[in-house]
Amino acid sequence: MRSAVRVFFATLFSIGMLFASGPAQADTPDPVNWPKPRFVTYNVCGSVCAVYEGSKTAWRDKVVSAMDNWDADLVMLQEMCYGQWTLLRDSLEDRSSGNKYDSVWGATLASADGCAKWGTDQRFGLATFAKGGPGTINNGSRTVDLLPEATPAENRILLCARTTVTGRAVRACNTHIDYRGDNPKVQIQKVADITRDYANQGDPVVLAGDFNQLPKDVDMAPLYNHGGGTGVFQEVDENDKSYFTGTECPQSGDRCRSGEATAEKGCSPHVSEPGKIDYIFLSYYWFTTVRGDAAACTTGLSDHHLLRGAAAWEH
Predict the structure, then answer these.
(1) In Å, how far from its chain's centre is CA 252?
(2) Please, what CATH class does the domain formed by 8-23+38-313 belong to?
(3) CA 130 centroid distance within chain
(4) What is the CA radius of gyration of the chain?
(5) pLDDT band, very low/low/confident/very high, at 14 (cuts 50, 70, 90)
(6) Fewest CB atoms less than 10 Å from the CB: which of 9, 98, 114, 144?
């Protein structure tokens, strides 16, 4: 149930973020001047990784701190054990100070051995959190689509629901794509088809997660609306020229299928070269002024970097 961080990128080449200092970056976020709404996606490595500092509450407090410091409107978490979700859910849905968050859960596995450390219910999957109290997410709109498998592997899903973001209705979708064989190709295409339908229905769409592919990979083309892509999305970190490389990403350009690494050695022992495999996609018609930043790594928390994003409303 691990990502290409452990397998695929081992042969080719997760949140200090707002918790710990790291090297300065060209697009280091300014919490005051970056636009809103704000987004986060993070593969929390709930089954395989040890509990941060051996303490469930320490793990919870780190994640809550990141959400609060970034003033996140939507948070998408992958590789999450059921006990992790309920721990965060119970802390955030009705707290006396700080932003409240509503949440929705989707299971990919009925049981994962590594989830026993988080509680007796060992389900494993995805969770999405939206700023606001209970009822912010329309649970009646919740959908869980099982993604196809060209190569038999662990179940993967797309979890979507309508929610309110800065007072506007948005379709929030969360996924974790498999890395084996042709699974990335068929699963990303399925995700692109579903989310395109939502966009065609008039919903602003936010799609985030661990895609286990690099931005320029041909399998990612169904998502991007530029750079040879056929999709309906822009990506939050596509305009940081610090990561424009190759003839297809000239410094004279405004955006590119590129971005800062979210998996690299230091976070994961199986990565030899850095790569961006985590994404926050926003439907291009509804959002503008996109910005993205991969946070620094907090040792022992995850083998991915947390990715945070921001945008302004276009319409």
Answers:
(1) 29
(2) alpha beta
(3) 13
(4) 18
(5) very low
(6) 98
